[in-house]
Predict the structure.
Amino acid sequence: MRVLLIGGFLGSGKTTTILKLIDKMAAAGKKVALIVNEVGEIGIDGKTLETAGIPSKELTNGCICCSLVINLRITVSEIADIYNPDILIIEPTGLSFPSQIRDELLTMNVMMSFAPVITLIDVSRLTAEMDQIPKFVEQQLKEAEIIGINKIDLADEDKIKSIEAFLKEMTPDAYLMRMAAVNDSGGAIDTLYELVTRKREEIAGMPDILERPPKKAAENLNSIEISNVSTYSGSYKVSGELTVKKAGELLENIISAAGMEISKVNKSFVGHVKMAVKVGGTLVKVSQTSGADDRKIEAEYILQNETGNDGAYELRFLAAVTNVKKETLEEIIDQSVSVFLTAKKLDFEKRVLKEEAKKPIVL
């Protein structure tokens, strides 16, 4: 079993990249399994990745390089025993240090090999992230073996070159590659596939990084504490009439309002606010992945096999932003949700998670 860790700060494009890689691996006949980690009690990316149709498990309410490390070990053992995949992809929360996860897995009595640790960055937001959480971002980058400079389709050439120069100085041993995972116009997914699945001697022009020993993780660092990120997640039970279009507009309005209120507390915040609701057979997912000066709201409409809601919906949310108190973040999200659901004349009730609902569940 070959283990592939794909890390990167919140909103860097991990989920999109993983979906593209899974498609590529499945087409090549690879047997793939997946572990998704989200720091909140309720996960959203796991719902998105369900569409890949592979064995997957979602670990929530903590970070698998810190508080959930025991759950991670149990989950990896179960996947190895039950599914025995060719490749196990692990998407840790954006608040993790992936090398710590690999070092922990190396102590397990499970036959596995490791692909180089991949860290993705959003080329347009790295400067803002370094301003807000420099120690965290620097450590995450320095542990990376491959750095995917993602979302180059949204940045000009001067910006990309500037970020490349910065990364070469900070992480001279890392292999840098440009990416636009959402449309993969430059073929980066093919390159990643080759790097993480093929034997070294089979890769033409193999980067030097694959010949070097793995980088060691920094010891005694709690990634959550270093990040200065507050998180808040949960769900609402919503009743009424919703179409896919109306759901998308509703979530965009809620997130836009929440982003504006958060920016009043910390104008330069980075992180993300994500919300999702399934309407019929479509998962509507909307996210904001930047700060006040450069807010980008992205909507995805993901077709799933299941249909029917009977006028009842679950609205999930996850907010994780820098340098805002947790209680303030909670108040902003709840108020934004309440205002727009009321305006749309939808009945709603906030769900309180039972302890058993917080435990990892095999999907």
Summary: The chain is about 35% helix and 25% strand. The chain has two domains: 2-224, 229-352. The first strand starts at residue 2 and ends at 8. The radius of gyration is 20 Å.
